[in-house]
């Protein structure tokens, strides 16, 4: 029903003023880089923001992880990232696309306290992918905007600090998830794979990005940023958006590091579009050599004085306000806040339907939800109204 409305509005908008309430569902116009200018507009393009040369700018690296944050994977994050600094002296930063089920909220709080970025990956993460392909704007609100409420309440993450989403299974739904980002006051999506070396851009105007797993957005959705997932190439040149989905990769540490470095150099020796290392911690559990190679690759990155490991929000700050190496404080005024003081955890014993579930939150027993938080009930109230 929602899809029909959108389709109808696109067709209608070519001939008449859009209907009230659907004014955003206008087919996007071609992007003119003289009109669409930073900091609030950018055309989809491989051009470097600010017309700078590759050698003048930092190579931004975005290390991200998807899915539940739990006692099963926090060890990897602590080992890999604690006590590492960027060339400007700020701690390095990574981004976590957190899904709610099985997440330990006190560990999400710990990541935040160590300066990392918390982003959204839905409350349910429920298969099949076709569910996500067909999800309406309203249903996306329940999965993502309500996840902000949930993580704010139980992980004590300030609402405004959560600005980005990654869709489960990277399954886009045309305009819908992007329209939700705008409606919910969020900022960016990082779910859309590409084989072009695109810099992040906004959806004010139509995108030129290739669309390998559609449907892709077609409407103008002003102010929403796309952080493209630039594909890696495995050792048989097969594209992969998440590194753990690359098939033809070596199984020894040296070979793996070479594979990572080769993909990094596509950016570093090219237009320096932000380089993403997108992976699930579950990959490290598959074979210990993957984690050893990952650590060695981060060591390699950190040997470069022009390589910065930052969260996606901070990457966007640079894109919106590009500056040269040596004057990066013009883009990044100060280090992200690191308190190193996580919250006090409490394990709540709850019901999820007939099942028993523990959920660790920040706080005391009084702060526990009454039932396991879920879709339409992010605060886990026993008797809630729709
Ligand atoms: C999603 O939509 C497609 C086409 O619109 C349809 O074929 C499919 O059955 C739908 N899937 C679900 C899970 O609703
Ligand atoms: C793009 O959208 C943002 C957010 O609505 C707005 O501030 C900016 O003026 C828009 N730019 C153009 C050129 O449409
Ligand atoms: C992959 O592509 C690169 C560059 O296009 C080429 O040099 C290399 O030989 C290719 N490798 C394979 C296995 O096809
Ligand atoms: Zn996931």
From TrEMBL:
Keywords: Signal. GO terms for molecular function: hydrolase activity. It comes from the Eukaryota. InterPro entries: CE4 (IPR052740), Glyco_hydro/deAcase_b/a-brl (IPR011330). The keyword RNA-binding does not apply. Residues 1-16 form the signal peptide. One of its GO terms (biological process) is carbohydrate metabolic process. This is NodB homology domain-containing protein. It comes from Ignelater luminosus (Cucubano).
